[in-house]
Design brief:
Length: 377
C-alpha cells in the first residue's frame, strides 16, 4: 500500500515509514511518476507499514516548457523558482528523515543549480563480462554549475572549483568503490577534468590528497582518457571520477562500451554530499523529459521500473526487489513486450501491466515464490 501526500506533513512522527520523495517535471513527467508509484507499490506490498510517497507540490519545468515562454527574463525567473523550490523540497525531506527521492526529468539549468547547492555526485556502476567500472560524476562544481549574467547580446557564466569540494567528491568515490568491491581490490583510479585551464590548482589539490591517502590517482585531460580508452581499454575495477564536462557526454558511450544496456533503459543515482542532507539519494532516469511523447502513453518505462526496484530494495525494506524486477524484465524482453522506441508495439501502460503480471517478489529467504516463473534462468 502506498500512501500519497501532496505537501510536507506538519507531524512527521505519525507518518508510517519508509517515506520516499517524488518530484515531477513536465513533459512525460506525470506519466513516469505514475509508473514509479505503481511499480513501487507492487514491490513494497509486503511491507508491514506500507510506503508513504511525499510528492512535491510543484510541477517543475522542462526545457521545452520554458522555451514556450519566449522571454529570456521570464525563463530566468522560472528557472530560479524551480531551483529554489526543489532545493527546499530536498532539504525538507532530508531533515524529516527521507533517504531517497525519485525525480523525473526537469530543466537542466534548474537542476544543476540544485546539484551545485547540494553538492551532488552521480554514481553509476557499469559491468561487462566480469569487468566493472565505477563512474562518479562531479556535479557540485565546474562549468555546468554557476550563475549567468546577461548584458545586451552577451551571457557571462561564472563558476568555480574548490579544494574542499574536490576532496569531498574523491573521498565519496573511494568510499563507494570500497562498498562495491568489498575485498579492497581497486585496479586504477582515474580523474578526467579540464585541469589545464585552472593554473595548476586542481592537479596540486589532487596530488596532495593522493599523498595524504597513500594512493595513486591518475589525473588526465578528457581527450587523454578517451585515447587511453580506445587504445588500451580499461582494467577491471577502474574508478573514474570526472567533471561533468566529460562525463555527461561520455556516459552513454561508456554504457555502450560496457554493454550495459541502452540509455533509455537506464536509471542512475545522485548522492547529496552537503552535510545537511545526510546523504540523501536522488534517483532518476537517464532519458530526458520527452515532451513530444507527453500524453501519448508511449514513454519507455524500463528505466523508471528499475529506479523503483532500487528504491524498494535499498530504502523500503524489500530485499530481492532488483533481482525480481530484472527477472520480470527479461521475460518481457523474451516475449517482445516493448515500447515503440525499442522496436515494440506496446504502450507504456501495457508494458507496466505485463511486468506486474509476471513480477514475483522473493519470500523471506530471498528465493522466488514461483520458481517455474524464471524458466530455469
Amino acid at each position: 500500500m502506498i500512501r500519497r501526500r501532496s505537501a510536507v506533513p506538519a507531524d512527521e512522527s505519525r507518518t508510517p515509514k519508509p517515506v520516499i520523495g517524488l518530484a515531477v517535471g513536465r513533459g512525460t513527467g506525470p506519466e513516469v511518476a505514475d509508473v514509479f508509484e505503481r511499480v513501487l507499490g507492487a514491490l513494497t506490498a509486503g511491507h508491514p507499514h506500507g510506503v508513504t510517497i511525499e510528492r512535491s507540490p510543484r510541477l517543475y519545468h522542462s526545457y521545452v516548457s520554458l522555451r514556450a515562454e519566449r522571454d529570456v527574463a521570464r525563463i530566468r525567473a522560472l528557472t530560479a523558482e524551480d531551483a529554489d523550490h526543489y532545493e527546499r523540497f530536498c532539504r525538507t525531506r532530508a531533515e524529516q528523515g527521507t533517504e531517497a527521492v525519485f525525480r523525473t526529468a526537469i530543466n537542466a539549468q534548474s537542476l544543476y543549480l540544485v546539484r551545485q547547492r547540494l553538492r551532488a555526485v552521480k554514481v553509476d556502476l557499469l559491468t561487462d563480462a566480469g569487468r566493472s567500472l565505477l563512474l562518479v560524476r562531479d556535479q557540485a562544481q565546474g562549468f555546468y554549475t554557476g550563475e549567468n549574467r546577461h548584458t545586451p547580446g552577451e551571457v557571462t557564466r561564472t563558476m568555480s572549483f574548490s579544494r574542499e569540494i574536490t576532496e569531498a567528491v574523491v573521498s565519496h568515490a573511494l568510499r563507494r568503490a570500497r562498498r562495491e568491491w568489498p575485498d579492497g581490490r581497486l585496479d586504477r583510479i582515474v580523474m578526467a577534468y579540464k585541469f589545464h585551464l585552472l593554473d595548476g590548482a586542481l592537479d596540486a589539490w589532487v596530488a596532495d590528497l593522493a599523498d595524504r591517502l597513500g594512493i595513486r590517482i591518475d589525473l588526465f585531460q578528457p581527450d587523454t582518457v578517451n585515447r587511453n580508452l580506445l587504445t588500451h581499454g580499461l582494467p577491471d575495477r577502474t574508478l573514474i571520477v570526472a567533471g561533468n564536462e566529460w562525463a555527461d557526454i561520455m556516459h552513454v558511450m561508456l554504457l555502450d562500451r560496457f554493454g550495459s544496456d541502452r540509455q533509455e533503459n537506464r536509471c542512475t543515482e545522485n548522492v547529496c554530499l552537503d552535510p545537511g542532507l545526510s546523504g540523501l539519494v536522488e534517483y532518476q532516469t537517464v532519458h530526458g523529459s520527452a515532451d513530444d511523447l507527453a500524453g501519448r502513453d508511449l514513454v519507455n518505462p524500463v528505466a523508471t521500473i528499475r529506479a523503483a526496484a532500487l528504491v524498494a530494495e535499498r530504502h523500503a525494506g524489500r530485499p530481492g526487489a532488483v533481482r525480481a524486477t530484472e527477472r520480470a524484465l527479461r521475460l518481457l524482453d523474451e516475449r517482445g513486450v516493448r515500447t515503440p522506441d525499442l522496436g515494440g508495439r506496446y504502450s507504456t501502460t501495457a508494458v507496466v501491466d505485463a511486468l506486474l503480471d509476471c513480477l514475483d517478489m522473493p519470500g523471506a529467504d530471498g528465493t522466488p515464490k514461483d520458481a517455474a516463473l524464471v524458466g530455469g534462468s
